[in-house]
């Protein structure tokens, strides 16, 4: 079986659930008291798909202001970037647009962008409407998906969508 390596980095405000998404995907677990990421953390996960094995190399970056200048080190080598916002915090959706602009100006050409509206289990606290985020994602040709690291909704689906959109390099 062919091995395909997929480098993915996660960007977005502190507290939107980046580390929790990676933890759910890689270990299938959720820790409500997860520690904040300092700088960046790296994890891998192998997923058999059709007649290939997809090896995800995932960089989870810290959203804190003091670490933001480190982000280019991670997204520059990535085939895909997941920009995460929290559906219950409108300001995290606005912040996402800053990341998009940064990727457009300084990111690798043809980087696959996925926008993840996380914490979709918290329906009663929603501040960002699905349609609004979906339309925005379409306008920049990004994948759009609402996820919940807590309940596992759309986590592996998101990584699958990303792998479909990353071009194969022979
Ligand atoms: P990061 O700073 O973006 O890496 O965010 P964390 O992964 O540290 O998560 C911040 C907080 O949000 C933690 O208390 C998590 O338990 C919580 N959290 C993360 N994802 C979800 C989710 O999908 N649903 C809910 N309800 N809480 C979440």
Automatic annotation (TrEMBL):
GO terms for cellular component: early endosome; phagocytic vesicle membrane. InterPro entries: P-loop_NTPase (IPR027417), Small_GTP-bd (IPR005225), Small_GTPase (IPR001806). It is found in: Cytoplasmic vesicle, Phagosome membrane; Early endosome. GO terms for molecular function: GTP binding; GTPase activity. Pfam families: Ras (PF00071). This is RAB31, member RAS onco family. NCBIfam families: small_GTP. It is a lipid-anchor. The lineage of its organism: Eukaryota, Metazoa, Chordata, Craniata, Vertebrata. SMART domains: RAB, RAN, RAS, RHO. Keywords: Cytoplasmic vesicle, Endosome, GTP-binding, Lipoprotein, Membrane, Nucleotide-binding, Prenylation. Belongs to the small GTPase superfamily. Rab family. PROSITE patterns: ARF, RAB, RAS. It comes from Eptatretus burgeri.
């Amino acid at each position: 079986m062919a091995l395909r390596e997929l480098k993915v980095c996660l960007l977005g405000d502190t507290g939107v659930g980046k580390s929790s998404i990676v933890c759910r995907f890689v270990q299938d677990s959720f820790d409500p008291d997860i520690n904040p990421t300092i700088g960046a953390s790296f994890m891998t996960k192998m997923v058999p798909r059709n007649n290939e094995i997809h090896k995800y190399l995932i960089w989870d970056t810290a959203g804190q202001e003091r670490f933001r200048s480190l982000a280019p080190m991670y997204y520059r080598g990535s085939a895909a970037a997941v920009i995460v916002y929290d559906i219950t915090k409108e300001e995290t959706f606005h912040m996402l647009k800053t990341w998009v602009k940064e990727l457009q100006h300084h990111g690798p050409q043809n980087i696959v962008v996925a926008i993840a509206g996380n914490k979709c289990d918290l329906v009663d606290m929603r501040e960002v409407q699905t349609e609004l985020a979906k339309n925005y994602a379409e306008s920049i040709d990004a994948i759009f998906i609402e996820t919940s690291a807590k309940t596992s909704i759309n986590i592996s689906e998101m990584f699958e969508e990303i792998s479909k959109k990353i071009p194969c390099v022979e």
